[in-house]
Specification:
Elements lengths: L5 H5 L23 E5 L9 H5 L10 H14 L2 E8 L4 E12 L2 H4 L1 E10 L8 H15 L2 E5 L7 H5 L19
Parallel strand pairs: 4-5
Antiparallel strand pairs: 1-2, 2-3, 3-4
Length: about 180
């Protein structure tokens, strides 16, 4: 079971991708041995939580916990989680989440947020980060988002700016953190 219909990925207009790629790599043309697809309920076994651990603290997520969360996220129709699978090792090596916030403003459009972008250290340098962001941006466009945002730190700002994301100087986010 996929977290969203894979036909959504297949129908994206890849010509609108913001990034430029070397070696004929693109969202529609991954290197041999890799596959871009929606997150699956079975991806716990392919190391999804371990992959997220390269980004942040995940905690002790059991398969049962993963499946319950997956089912809730899938049924909400608000989560577009894409993964890159390394076919030879049957492991996930990259992921990004684009999630929707339904709004009344902008004629009931959606606001999109990019979260949890990570590429396994052994597979960095293959342009997968750019690819995952391009896909997230294209997904936001086809899901009627009037705006797409992400939080980033200064050391990766230039990377995001290459993909047409802009820092809005007059917007600083505030938050309450309840735990690590």
């Amino acid at each position: 079971m996929d977290i969203f219909e894979k036909s959504v990925l297949e129908e994206l207009d890849w010509s609108k991708a913001a990034a430029t790629y070397r070696d004929d790599i693109s969202p529609s043309n991954l290197p041999t041995g890799y596959k871009l697809r929606p997150l699956r309920r079975s991806d716990y076994e392919l190391g999804y939580c371990k992959l997220l651990g390269y980004l942040t603290k995940v905690g002790d997520v059991t398969q049962n916990m993963f499946c319950k969360q997956f089912d809730m996220m899938s049924s909400s129709k608000m989560y577009y989680i894409v993964v890159i699978e390394h076919l030879e090792s049957s492991q996930l090596v990259g992921t990004a989440t684009m999630l929707l916030e339904h709004k009344f403003i902008h004629t009931t459009a959606n606001r999109g947020r990019i979260e949890d972008v990570v590429v396994h250290p052994d597979h960095q340098g293959k342009q997968f980060g750019k690819l995952l962001l391009d896909v997230s941006i294209l997904l936001a466009e086809v899901t009627n988002c009037y705006k797409l945002s992400l939080d980033c730190n200064e050391k990766v700002r230039a990377f995001y700016e290459k993909l047409n994301l802009k820092l809005k100087d007059d917007h600083k986010f505030m938050y309450v953190q309840f735990f690590d």
